[in-house]
Amino acid sequence: MLPARDNPFRMQRIEALRYRLDENSWQRLLARFAAQHWRGVLVGPHGSGKTTLREEIETRLRADGWKVRTVILGDDRMISWPDLRALCDGADGRTLLCLDGLDRLSTLHWWRLRRATRTVGGILATSHVAGRLPTLHQHHTSPALLRELVRELLGDDGDSLTWTERCDTVFIRHCGDLRACLRTFYDDVIEKPSRHVTP
């Protein structure tokens, strides 16, 4: 069996992928965020890069002197109001609160959080649906984007064409969820290691 460390689609490599924006697009995105008084939500389906973009925005704002506080709201985790309120303690005009999974937050918690964050510098969230905050970026996926990611993960692998030719089928199977598509390729490498060349 191929060791996980040699699988080009292993999680560490997927998590290291950067969000596809050139520097001009980055400047426009951050200018829009500032124009929205540093309030915005990244909207898109599962596996469309919302968390990746959130993390990169956090990194850029940290480099500019912002303090960042993040909470991940998962389907299997109920967050209490005291936990949310603690995020706001001591926050100031250069604090960015990040909520990954805003649509999982109850209406009551959201209204209480809005009141508690009136003086906070910024709020950045991810969500599968629009609303609650101005949309900062609408995420979309495509088979072409999946092919680009696969080529990057495989590097100079001579067999990359075989993998990219399967992207359309796998993309449809997983309804555009790129993470699910890449997990499928990870499993394929385990099942058919002879098709793999270490990049």
Could you provide a short overview of the structure?
The protein is of the alpha/beta class and 199 residues long. Helices cover 44% and strands 14% of the residues. Strands 2-3-4-1-5 form a five-stranded parallel sheet, with helices on both faces.
Describe the structure.
The protein is an alpha/beta fold and 199 residues long. It folds into two domains: 23-138, P-loop containing nucleotide triphosphate hydrolases (Rossmann fold), CATH 3.40.50; 141-192. Helices cover 44% and strands 14% of the residues. It is built from nine helices and five strands. Strands 2-3-4-1-5 form a five-stranded parallel β-sheet, with helices on both faces. Strand 2, helix 4 and strand 3 form a beta-alpha-beta unit. The longest helix is centred in the first third of the chain and has 14 residues, at 50-63. The two termini are 18 Å apart.
